[in-house]
Write a structure and sequence with these properties.
It is a single chain. The protein has 16 helices and eleven strands. By secondary structure, the protein is α/β, with parallel strands linked by helices. The longest helix is centred in the middle third of the chain and has 29 residues, at 145-173.
């Protein structure tokens, strides 16, 4: 059992985040794939994904633990929903930070030398790990990321309504009963081991996560007393919700919108509905970066998307007109 102790200041500072980020969700998806008994809502997803993971995903899958906690990519690279931003953060992460995150991970003996190379700051090992993260994301997460973000937004909106109607007390009481029980001032969460946490005025961040099923994780930086702990809460709670996620959003391009814009551009507009980078768009559509540039230019000229630069990446986002077309096509 996990017991989280709140003060009045903690309650005032409790909030909800939109996602744990593309990198952490990717790692969670690998943990889901490794489960012997997969929950019903994720069986169709694994049937599609499992056979597509190639050797290029090995650098990340090698860091899956034989037992105990896994790698905390949220603490290591942040919660950006853009995998390109996550990769940039991973490549820039201080060596001491990487070593600290890897130390508690019980890597299998066959992969110990690889994990040691990553922990000791080997530049080639770090780049291979980043490439493995991208490869895993491309197969296991990217085709479903737009629908996943929509589901996370639905859960977050439900939390917001509960908070507006009953305050933080009602919000904590609504979290996945009977797996979570709010007994003021303690939040009790079903957990694989006994843990007691006193927030000490820092508050708590609730984060809906896609690739988890009736499991919760408390994520925090043990080396930073000021960091706010995050409690991951499953966003998929029933088979119907899961089934709706495993249809790549680009499939609507076969309808009237595909006739109007062309199949690939209609699919590009659908992917851009929730924002995406050029690299992600190419991976989702299965086309080259040069082809993506042509399609995004055409959509931008038609005022269906906007393009902006975020750090070292380019972000494409559907405009209000583009969203109206998508809504009408749906």
């Amino acid at each position: 059992m996990l017991r989280i102790y709140f003060t009045a200041e903690d309650l005032a500072r409790t909030r909800v985040a939109s996602t744990i980020g593309a990198a952490a969700e990717t790692y969670y998806s690998l943990e889901m794939l490794c489960r012997r008994s997969l929950p019903v809502p994720f069986q169709r997803w694994r049937a599609t994904v499992a056979g597509r993971l190639g050797e290029d995903t090995g650098p990340l899958t090698a860091l899956m633990p034989a037992r105990g906690p896994g790698l905390d990519l949220l603490a290591l690279v942040g919660d950006s929903p853009d995998i390109d931003h996550a990769v940039e953060a991973l490549l820039r992460a201080p060596r001491i930070r990487v070593r600290r995150e890897l130390e508690p991970v019980a890597v299998r003996p066959a992969h110990m030398s690889w994990a040691r190379a990553v922990a000791e700051g080997d530049a080639d090992a770090r780049r291979l790990l980043a490439a493995g993260l991208v490869a895993c994301h491309r197969v296991a997460v990217a085709p479903y990321w737009a629908a996943s973000q929509s589901q996370l937004d639905v859960v977050r909106a439900q939390y917001a309504r509960t908070f507006l109607e009953g305050g933080v007390d009602a919000l904590l009481a609504s979290l996945s009963p009977p797996l979570v029980r709010w007994r003021p001032p303690v939040l009790e969460v079903r957990y694989p081991r006994p843990v007691e946490v006193h927030l000490g005025g820092r508050g708590l961040i609730l984060v809906p996560t896609l690739f988890s099923w009736r499991e919760f994780s408390l994520l925090y930086d043990p080396y930073d007393d000021a960091s706010v702990p995050r409690l991951t809460v499953p966003a998929v709670t029933d088979p119907a919700t899961g089934a709706a996620l495993w249809h790549p959003r680009g499939s609507v391009a076969d309808g009237a919108l595909g006739v109007l814009l062309g199949r690939t551009r209609a699919a590009a507009l659908r992917v851009a509905a929730d924002g995406c980078s050029t690299t992600e768009l190419a991976a989702r559509l299965g086309v080259s970066l040069a082809a993506v540039s042509q399609h995004t230019k055409a959509l931008r000229d038609a005022r269906l998307i906007t393009t902006s630069r975020r750090g070292g990446s380019v972000l494409h986002m559907a405009t209000a007109l583009g969203r109206e077309l998508l809504d009408g096509n749906r």
